[in-house]
Design goal:
- The chain is α+β, with helices and mostly antiparallel strands and about 270 residues long.
- It has 8 helices and 14 strands.
- The strands form 5 sheets. Strands 8, 10, 11, 13 and 14 form a 5-stranded mixed β-sheet that branches. Strands 3-2-7 form a 3-stranded antiparallel β-sheet.
- Strand 10 and strand 11 form a beta hairpin.
- The longest helix is centred in the first third of the chain and has 18 residues.
């Protein structure tokens, strides 16, 4: 039995080695490492049984991404529990990747993804984001991981807003604050963000398509991260939906540093 386990380990290591060529940079999340950290805080869930038993630790996943950014294979190399491992894998599968590079060209490459499961930190995160466990707003869900455009859907995503807020535009207008650096520079213009509305209604893989300095891009990202959605529906299943949000920054001295905005998709 020991020999068999050793042999399986050797085979796995050999398979990883055959797939990967020399790389100068590792695969990286398309959203960038800073946004990735917030993404994890938004999506992390802690299984109740592990919370009750006070099971903690860091799950580590080794993985390989091809030259087009597709995950070819992954393996949990530091396991905490079956349920925590599964929760970590669920988050890992949502991430879109830029491939590794060698001499400036995309190549198949390997990297490591890890999430620290700490009960004290999880309780703080849950309090800040306003929910402990993630409950999908619509079931059943499409488990294929495929991405869909708005045009392909039967029902478009719709932001879940507070009862007294009538539109997404109003929500953004109410919560967005004109950054001080932008005010000092008298900056105005649009920030355009691309992201995915996941089947659980949470945003992921936020990428700025149009930037605006002075902290405006960062403020737009913060607002996008705060919105929970009813996901897009296709064939009576919740699906992953590609979405673009456009926010217009215009300084208005009479609005106490809040800025008007526009939602680019028309939803």
């Amino acid at each position: 039995m020991i020999y068999l386990r050793y042999l399986i380990t050797i085979i796995l290591i050999s398979a990883f080695s055959l797939l990967v060529v020399s790389q100068n940079t590792e695969p990286k999340p398309i959203m960038g490492n800073k946004i990735l950290k917030e993404f994890i805080k938004i999506h992390i869930d802690y299984p109740d049984n592990d919370l009750q038993q006070k099971i903690q630790g860091t799950v580590s996943i080794h993985f390989i991404v091809d030259n087009k950014g597709n995950v070819l294979t992954y393996e949990v190399v530091n396991s905490i529990s079956n349920s925590i491992d599964s929760a970590c894998i669920s988050i890992f599968k949502l991430i879109l990747w830029n491939p590794a590079t060698s001499l400036g060209k995309p190549v198949t490459g390997k990297s490591e993804f890890a999430i620290k499961y700490n009960i004290k930190n999880f309780n703080k995160i849950s309090k800040r984001r306003g929910y402990k466990h993630i409950i999908p707003p619509f079931t059943p869900i499409d488990s294929s991981g495929r991405l869909y455009s708005l045009k392909q859907l039967d029902t478009l995503p719709k932001a879940i807003l507070p009862p007294d807020v009538k539109s997404l535009t109003k929500y953004i207008y109410t919560n967005l604050v004109y950054p001080d650096p932008a005010a000092k520079l008298a900056l105005s213009g649009k920030v355009e963000l691309s992201f995915i509305i996941e089947t659980n209604g949470l945003p992921s893989n936020i990428i700025p398509l149009k930037y605006l300095g002075g902290g405006c891009t960062e403020e737009a990202i913060r607002i996008a991260q705060s919105i929970i959605w009813n996901p897009g529906i296709l064939n009576q299943k919740a699906v992953r939906t590609e979405f673009i949000l456009s926010i217009d920054f215009q300084k208005d001295e009479n609005r106490d540093r809040h800025i008007p905005n526009q939602q680019g998709s028309g939803i």
